[in-house]
Design brief:
- By secondary structure, this protein is of the alpha+beta class.
- It has 2 domains: 1-74; 82-288, Nuclear Transport Factor 2, Chain: A (Roll), CATH 3.10.450.
- The chain has helices at 113-119, 126-148, 151-157, 193-206, and strands at residues 2-3, 10-16, 22-28, 33-36, 42-44, 52-57, 63-67, 72-74, 158-172, 183-191, 210-221, 228-239, 243-253, 261-269.
- Strands 10-9-14-13-12-11 form a 6-stranded mixed sheet.
- The longest helix is centred in the middle third of the chain and has 23 residues, at 126-148.
- It is globular and about 60 Å long.
- It starts with a strand and ends in a 23-residue tail after the last strand.
Length: 292
């Protein structure tokens, strides 16, 4: 771990991830994390100056800063050209690397487009707008973390008591009760955060290339608990040795506004058999969880 000098009650801290690369965060004078830095291909200043930690985006020369509250600000609204890593990420319309605070510039074909429009709509209250924009940033970073095998980010974003639910299709043998026809049903496996991370590390080690494609992306705010959001999306997963297609649900908690965490992650297979798609009313959403 590397800790840079404290200035204006803020310090930059670097922690090596599983790939030996540095993951950076901002801490205050009490050593509490103010925010995590999710920028790529940048050079960072090492101390705050007049409330700003400056950075420079290497491929484009564009400048920006991280403010005292951890918010990333680009000094220009010009769109940053996507930097493709040809040895890891094939080029397709879903797979562009999206930079923080650049959501207003995304194209209509992007899977985040509709929710990005809502996040910048004038009718939203400021807190709701900020939370939605942060969800966009974090979910895109989560998608990228699989290709980069960045277990450090995934570990940070899930709460210690996170509930991980994974569905699997099983086929029941023909019997009198099902008219002697095979029946498919989904069974669910529940894991702890640690069990999930242990399995994911094994997956990362076994695959040279992993790609996630997101679609049908939706953000819903809880009707009575304004700090809770549900994120629903379709996830297509491909790797060297395995592929699947299903629905991902993430329950986000913004009680700590600058470092939201995921309390629930569910995944369900999209197809039950060769033709049957899982019914929409069986897909997990906010309604499935009791917050009392």
């Amino acid at each position: 771990m590397v800790t840079y000098p404290m200035q204006e009650d803020r310090a930059l801290v670097g922690v090596p991830n599983s790939q030996g690369e540095m993951a950076y965060m901002i801490v205050n004078g009490q050593s509490n994390v103010v925010s995590y830095i999710h920028l790529t291909d940048v050079k960072l200043d090492t101390i705050y100056r007049d409330g700003k930690l400056s950075f420079w985006h290497i491929p484009t020369g564009q400048k920006g800063y991280i403010d005292i509250n951890g918010k990333t600000v680009w000094e220009s609204q010009e769109q940053i050209e996507d930097k493709q890593e040809a040895d890891e990420q094939p080029v397709n319309k879903h797979n562009k690397i999206i930079k923080v605070n650049n959501w207003q510039a995304i194209i209509e074909q992007n899977p985040f487009y509709e929710e990005a429009k809502k996040a910048f709509a004038s009718g939203l209250e400021e807190t709701d707008k900020d939370n939605r924009q942060m969800i966009l940033d974090y979910v895109e970073q989560l998608r990228q973390s699989y290709g980069k095998k960045d277990i450090c980010f995934i570990e940070q974003v899930f709460s210690d008591n996170a509930l991980i639910i994974t569905g699997k299709v099983i086929r029941e043998a023909p019997s009198e009760s099902n008219n002697y026809l095979p029946q498919e049903k989904v069974t669910y496996n529940i894991r702890s955060k640690q069990q999930f991370l242990t399995k994911l590390k094994q997956v990362f080690a076994a695959n040279k290339k992993i790609e996630l494609i997101f679609s049908d992306f939706k953000i819903n705010r809880h009707p009575t608990i304004p700090t809770v959001y549900g994120v629903s999306l379709r996830q297509t997963y491909t790797s060297d040795i395995y592929a699947d297609d299903g629905y991902l649900f993430l329950l986000w908690d913004f009680q700590q506004a600058d470092s939201p965490q995921i309390h629930v992650r569910t995944w369900q297979p999209r197809i039950l058999d060769d033709q049957t798609v899982i019914p929409e009313n069986e897909i997990f959403s906010l309604r499935n969880f009791n917050f009392k």
